[in-house]
Amino acid sequence: MKRRTLLASAAALALASGAAFAQDVTKVGFVYVGPVNDGGWSQHHHEAAMKMKEHFGDQVELVEQASVPEGADAERVLTQMALGGADLIFTTSFGYMDPTINVAAKFPDVKFEHATGYKTADNVSAYSARFYEGRAIEGFLAGHMSKTGKIGYIGSFPIPEVIRGINSSYIHAAKVNPDIEISVVWISTWFDPAKEADATQALLDQGVDVVLAHTDSTAPLAILKEKGGFGFGQAADMYEYAPEPRISSIIDEWAPYYIERVQAVIDGTWKSHNTWQGIGDGMVGIGEITGPVPAEVKAEAEKMVEDIASGAYHPFTGPLNKQDGSAWLADGEVADDGTLAGMNFYVEGITGDIPQ
Predict the structure, then answer these.
(1) 70 and 193 co-located in one domain
(2) Are 230 and 172 found together in one domain?
(3) Residue 162 sits in a domain of what CATH number?
(4) Helix (H) or strand (E) holding 3
């Protein structure tokens, strides 16, 4: 009888230890709009998630779902993750904003982090990077490297993030060459290598010789390598296309943020917030400037990176007018975050309309 009691006690202790161990594991989910090998946006989020997992080891269970369309499919995937026991879910595309808010309302004990959006709730944070800071550097380089005076921009969707990028690129290209022209091609997708390639070719056919892409694949650089012209890595360094046509890049550095937010869940200190970080915070990286960029231009671009990082220079500093010629920023005036976050207009000098 005593032996049976001891065995039962041991079994109960083992079960209790196992349950305690299971409770110590934090389950973290990630949802991506593209494949994890897209070479850009989704792959870089995935690699950051893997760095986070490596940092925490057995403390964290990682769950990922790739190539999830924005909309109803995203809501279904998020619901499944929440039902599957996720403690924290990162939704990594702008179009996941409403699905995230909707699912979070049904699972108040699950924490959600949405990338590049603006809606929050008690259990939903929003986080984004000041990509427009990197676009300033790219625009400056594009203005110097264009021989035709025509640069191109491949836009995904006409959301403030992309409009900011177009404006910042043009402003800084025009500082170099006031006669510079920018052509924008909208393709209504984040990741579609065929569409991205076609858009690049269409821009080249218009006489463009430098292309900036606000999409997720390496297709634009592949076309530029074949046909000629310069481009930039987007979201990831895309260094395999250096020293040209890729002459620099905007690199998204998500891993430190992911580690910080998962640690907050583990510690029980997680709170909803809305954060927007840039070069100075380390969330936006600028890839090595390569190719035939003159040494003095490279030095000026690197100085601009330093000035943006320190706060000595802001990419949206007046005098600047809106596209219709109306005054926006006076000489020396800096755009406020509210206007930038909701930007829905082109600056003066850009032709064409923003799709509605």
Answers:
(1) no
(2) yes
(3) 3.40.50.2300
(4) helix 2-24
| Section 133-153 average pLDDT | 98
Q: Given the DSSP bridges, would you call strands 320-321 and 327-329 parallel, antiparallel or unpaired? A: antiparallel
Query: Is 4 inside any structural domain?
Result: no
Q: Which residues contact 17 (CB under 8 A, 6 or more apart)?
A: none
Q: How far apart are CA 7 and CA 10, in angstroms?
A: 5
Q: Is 209 left (phi over 0), alpha (psi -120 to 50) or beta?
A: alpha
Owning domain of residue 192? 131-251+283-341
Q: Is residue 13 in some structural domain?
A: no
Domain count, the chain: 2
Q: Are 333 and 318 in contact (CB under 8 A)?
A: yes
Report pLDDT for 356.
85
Structural domain includes residue 16? no
Do 194 and 149 share a structural domain?
yes
User: Structure tokens of 262?
Assistant: 């998962």
Domain contains 6? no
Give which of 148, 125, 281, 265 is closest to 204, Cα–Cα. 148
* CA–CA–CA angle 205, 288, 140 (5° rounding): 50
Rounded alpha-carbon distances, angstroms, from residue 342 to 157, 162, 179, 226: 14, 11, 28, 37
Cβ atoms of 126 and 120 closer than 8 Å: yes
Contact 131, 153 (CB under 8 A): no
pLDDT of residue 39: 87
Q: Which amino acid appears at position 221 of this protein? A: L
Rounded average pLDDT over 257-269: 98
